[in-house]
Please model this.
Amino acid sequence: MKIKLAAHGIELDIQKDDNGNPIFGEITSFLHEVVVGTDEPFNAAMDGIESLVLAQAMAGFDVTTPQYAEAIETAVEACANNI
Model:
């Protein structure tokens, strides 16, 4: 099952078994710095956000709501302002 979120180009691909239980998940996004002089602390924080989003999606959270996208935006902004 592919899920596209409304924040930072986040896309999830969640594979489920025959009973509908998630068994594998993958995430892609535009959260990481892709310019020369990559900001490692910022990218590490974005890895954490990606991991949380994927874990919550695998656990059954509805990550497609506007409120969830707003929460991601807030977390990313907080990281950018504090790293």
